[in-house]
Amino acid sequence: MSERNRPPFRADHVGSLLRPQRLLDARGRHAKGEIDDAALRSVENEAIAEAVKLQQDAGMKGVTDGEYRREFFHIDFLERIDGVEQVPGGLPVKFHSHVSEVEFAPPGLKVTGKLKRSRGINTDDFAYLKSQVGAGFVPKLCIPSPTMLHFRGGRKGVDETAYPDMEGFFADLAKAYREEIAELGALGCTYLQLDDTNLAYLCDPALRENARKIGEDPDELPRLYARLINDSIRDRPADMAVCIHLCRGNFKSAWVAEGGYEPVAEVLFNELAVDGYFLEYDDERSGDFAPLRFVPKGKTVVLGLVSSKLAALEAAGDVKKRIEEAARFCDGDQLCLSPQCGFSSTVHGNQLTVEDEIGKLRLVAGVAGDFWGG
User: What DSSP string describes 317-359?
Assistant: First the structure.
């Protein structure tokens, strides 16, 4: 086993970082009309430059912008596609933490017209990130999976006048993604991550039942979503690695879904044409490692063994033992290590400090170096 030169890396992370207070303050002032877009972007640029240094110093080879320009990991991207509108008062979701429950209703999204990418979505953002990343590091862009525009509303979330046939909706959505990915590739993006809650939610019996209530078949959705994702990334450049992160929800250190990967594992690992998988394995709600038996040669699994939700730092020896357990089901040379999720999937952030965050990243880098070398 050895160090990896192509993403995903032995020591990696999911992407989002805790927002500095001055950035949160600038966002608040921008929302009130006290500063303009250019002034906000200037603050974002400064904060992102510092975030890049934080990651590089912590030993991360794949470097993100911390998602500092976003309020939500998915909405800010998807609402820039023509035909998508943000609607207030989304369905309340009950998030569970290790100590309490949190109810939160994120804004909803509705497809009100034909989908079209009429401008770059994250292209300018990526160009700035790339300009800040040092030699020997790789700029990594995280964007929401295209499935995020379908799962919560299903057929009811898509205007029937615009799309009487759902196949047209999926085709146009994938086309918008292909166009964005093509421009990102031309700008030098070689590491792209799709953030997907839906495949993980389909591992939870209660959420599978919710899918049935909106007229969807939870047994068929994984294959539908695999086709959609494959269509979206099919023309990616040869030098672009694409990974997917399966998330069970991440809001103020709380989650939504529970359940092991068994219900989706066969499709996930064998029908989804991605290079790697970021899988949450921080506690018992993620199930055991047995689903990794479906991972074929040539695919990489990034084990999310370090919690991004709890401040307590895991013991390095315990993390190594967990990697060894996973290697009983999947070749250890196909494994990598990361925190289980981002530290701030929404602007609100998890219940950790920046010092905790840095400690987690350094732990990942240290354990990966000891286990795989490099």
Answer: HHHHHHHHHHTTTS-GGGEEEEESS-S-SBTT--S--HHHHHH
Is residue 5 domain-resident? no
Give the structural domain span for 348.
21-372
- Residues 192, 259: Cα–Cα separation, whole Å: 26
φ/ψ (deg, to 5) at 204: -100, 120
Does 2 fall in a domain? no
pTM: 0.93
The interaxial angle of helices 354-372 and 37-58, nearest 10 deg, is 40
Instruction: State the Cα–Cα distance between residues 268 and 83, nearest whole angstrom.
Output: 29
Q: Cα(322)–Cα(362) distance, rounded to whole angstroms?
A: 18
CATH, residue 66 = 3.20.20.210
pLDDT digits (tens, 9 = 90+) for 218-277: 999 999 999 999 999 999 999 999 999 998 876 666 757 788 999 999 999 999 999 999
Strand duo 276-280 + 300-306: pairing: parallel
With respect to residue 284, please indicate whether it lies within any of the assigned structural domains. Answer: yes
Q: How many domains does the chain contain in total?
A: 1
